[in-house]
Amino acid sequence: LAVALAGCSIIPGMGDGGTNEAHVGDTVSTSWFDYTIISAEPAESYEGYTAAEGNKLVVVDLTMKNTFNESVPMYDTDFQLYWGEYSDDEMAFPLEPYCEAQLPMEYYLSIEEVREGILVYEVPSDVRDFTFAFLEIFDNGTDEGEEGDLFVTYFTAA
Known about the structure:
By secondary structure, this protein is an all-beta fold. Helices cover 0% and strands 53% of the residues. The strands form 4 sheets. Strands 1, 2, 9, 10, 13 and 14 form a 6-stranded mixed sheet that branches. A 4-stranded antiparallel sheet has the order 3-4-7-12, with no helix packed on it. A two-stranded antiparallel sheet has the order 5-6. The protein is globular and about 45 Å long.
């Protein structure tokens, strides 16, 4: 079974496979599942969490469907958010889940299961344009695995 982590080939050194580009509302098909970003909206606060001064939240609502013949292990950090020149300080992992609507930190996507959930990112308030990224990582017996295709979804959250 393959393991999946997020990244960007537009980020130096990330993504040895092909790059697949999408926008909000497009269905993206990975080796293990399909996903669609339903919406990606800015917010000062979400479900009781307020962004720090100078920051805002980006609330991403997505749906996923397992298209693989086994359950797929998933992590909230599989999906990362990038902006700017894609340097180490221009990316965010989802906030740890603090409300029921958010996807768990770790879960399995069962065969044919469809799951909808929220990922919340805290980002600088002056950023408008984002790249939501998922990078396939295949288990090849090494700690790093083998990078596959990169999937990026572009959106504006102003």
